Amino acid sequence: MHETTAPRQQTDVLISGGGVAGLVAAAAFGAAGFTTVCVDPAPPVTEEGAAGADMRTTAFLHPSRAVLERAGLWGRLAPHAAALQIMRIIDAGGETPKARLVRDFDAADLSEEPFGWNFPNWLLRREMVARLAELPLVDFRPGVATVGLVTNESGAEVRLSDGARISAKLVIGADGRNSFIREAAGIGVKTTHYGQKALVCAVTHPRPHENVSTEIHRSGGPFTLVPLPDRDGVPSSAIVWMERGPEAERLAALPTPEFEAAMTERSTGVLGPLTLVTRRALWPMMTQIACTFSGARVALLAEAAHVIPPIGAQGLNMSLADLRCLLDLAEADPAHLGEAAMLATYTRRRWPEVKAREIGIDLLNRASMLEPRPLRDLRASALGALYAFKPVRKTLMKAGLGLR
C-alpha cells in the first residue's frame, strides 16, 4: 500500500490568520482580483455574549478607512461606528487621582473628518466574515491551521491541518505574536516585556462621551475611555486600563461593585459613575518587532510583524498600513507577486516606519508608568509644553495618524 496525498490547490495568496488583520487582508486581496485562501485554527467569534468573544475595541484612524474601502468593508462597518473627534489627555499624577492638566487634540484642527472610528472587535469579525462570503475569489477556512511551509524561488507550498496542500505565490503571516509562519520562515524577533497587563471591558455612564477619547495618566499605565455607540440609549465607552501585572489581576478579580468604584476613581469621574456591562479580559503588554518583515515568498503582517502597547490606537492601524503597502506592490506588478524584489521593497518601506513608532510608543508607555511624584510632575510639564506650540501640536497629531 502506498499513501495517497491530497491534490494540491493553486492560489495567488495564502493568508495564515483570521483575526481582524487577516480578514481585512483576505477581503482586500480578493476584491483586488487575487485568488485568496485564508485559514485560522479558531473559527471567529462574532457575538458579544459568546464564549471567547474578543472584548477589545479597535479605533480605525483616518488613513485606515481607505484600506477598508478598497476591501469593500467600510460600507458594512460605517453604521456601527463611534466617531473619535477629540483625543483628550489628562494628567492625574498628583497626590489624589484628580485631573490637574487637561489637553485636547481636536481633529477639526486638521480636517473636517474625525481622527477615526471605534468598533468592538467581535462586531468587526461578524461584518468581515460576511464580506468574505460575498467574494468569489476568497476561500475562507475557519477551524484549519497552517502546519507546514516549504518555499522556493517559484512559490510556496503550505500544508494545512486538514491534510490539504496549497501552492501559493505569496504567503502572508497574519497569525499573531507567536506566528507559525514567522518561525517556519526562520525570521527572528526582538521582544520587550513591561510587566504590565491591559484590562479591557465596556461600560455605560451617565454623561455622554461627545466623541472624545480620553487617556488618563497617573501611574502603572494609561487608563483610556474610548467612545462606543450608545447601549440601549445609554452612553457607552470601551475601557483599556493598563496596570502592572499583579495589580491588573487584582482588579480583574474584584467583585463588580468594587471594580466599578475603582474604575470610576481611576477615571477621575470624568463621565460620572462607570457601570460594567461586559466581562473583563486581560492582555499581557509587550513590544515585539520581527528582524525583517519578509522572507522567501513570505510577508509578515500585523502582530506577526510587530506588537505594541495599546496607546494612541496605533496597533491595528500600523497593521493596515502594512496591508496597504503590500497591496499597492501586488497591484503594481501582479506578474511578480511574492517575488524577492517585491518583498524586499515591502520590508524597506515598512520596517523603519514601524521601528520609529515602536520607539515612540515605548517612551510614552514608560512615561505613563512612572511612580515617583517628581517624575510624574515632569511628565505633566512636558505635556503642557508640547501642547502649547500649535505647529508642534499639529505635527504630533499628524504623526499619530500616520499622515505625512
From TrEMBL:
Signal sequence span is none
Q: Which family does it belong to?
A: Belongs to the UbiH/COQ6 family.
Q: Which UniProt keywords apply?
A: FAD, Flavoprotein, Monooxygenase, Oxidoreductase
What is the protein name for this chain?
Answer: UbiH/UbiF family hydroxylase
Organism source for this protein? Rhodobacter lacus
Name the cofactor(s).
Answer: FAD
FAD-binding domain boundaries: 10-355
* Flavoprotein listed as a keyword: yes
Q: Is Flavoprotein among the key words of this record?
A: yes
Q: Pfam families, from UniProt?
A: FAD_binding_3 (PF01494)
According to its UniProt record, in which pathway does this protein act?
Cofactor biosynthesis; ubiquinone biosynthesis
